[in-house]
Design a protein that fits this description.
Blueprint: H1 8-17, H2 19-43, H3 48-70, H4 73-99, H5 104-110, H6 112-136, H7 144-169, H8 177-212
Helix pairs in contact: 2-3, 2-8, 3-4, 3-8, 4-6, 4-8, 5-6, 6-7, 7-8
């Protein structure tokens, strides 16, 4: 008998194809959102726009997992688009608004870790923009199905690495504890949402292949 070769890519694909993966990601996101709101209020780091973003995010996550379980493809597509734009707008407001517009002396006082934290937030914004481009711009490409799903799946490990770096650096900075916890929970929620979105996109791509007879 020939032994089956270990394939990291196939295991990675099965991870995103698993209904359990999507359900865990959705449940974790839904549970984390109220915690984000709590620490955002306590730290004063969340604005009225941020509160509205969390409400929309919660609604879209519930909508996406419902549409995946019921296999409502048009509703699934709408929820995926909404979540991608929701996270992109939130991160751009945080990175380009809250952090970038602060006085540079604040980051000088924090030292190297302050600039690394700022660079990390910019990289997270870049990855989210990259995923957004993968969903829309590359959608019209001839190899759109393979390219889009590979880009989005590859983005998740990079996002995970950046989130871990930010979680390590944040407590070292001169931010208050509640603000640090607000940052932690906000990024963890984004990570779970990206996993959920990738699961949904894989379902959509496989359905497209069946539709065109591939």
């Amino acid at each position: 008998m020939s032994k089956k070769k270990f394939s990291l890519s196939s295991r990675y694909k099965r991870f995103f194809l698993s209904e359990r993966t999507a359900m865990i990601a959705a449940v974790m996101s839904v549970l984390i959102i109220p915690v984000v709101y709590l620490f955002g209020i306590r730290s004063g780091g969340i604005s009225l726009t941020g509160k509205y973003d969390l409400m929309i995010r919660l609604t879209l996550v519930i909508t996406l997992i419902y549409s995946m379980r019921r296999h409502k493809l048009f509703l699934m597509q709408a929820a995926v688009v909404g979540l991608i734009f929701c996270m992109l707008c939130s991160q751009s407001q945080y990175a380009l608004g809250d952090l970038l517009q602060r006085d540079s002396e604040i980051y000088i006082t924090m030292g190297l870790q302050g600039f690394v934290f700022l660079a990390g937030e910019m990289m997270i914004l870049f990855i989210q923009s990259f995923v957004c481009a993968g969903h829309f711009i590359l959608y019209a490409a001839k190899q759109r199905k393979a390219i889009r799903i590979h880009i989005n799946q590859i983005a998740v490990p990079f996002l995970l690495i950046l989130v871990i770096i930010q979680l390590i650096i944040a407590p070292i900075l001169s931010f208050g504890l509640d603000y640090v916890l607000y940052i932690w929970t906000l990024h963890l929620d984004e990570l779970f949402i990206f996993v959920l979105v990738d699961c949904a996109e894989l379902v959509l791509i496989l359905d497209q292949r069946e539709y065109v007879g591939e």
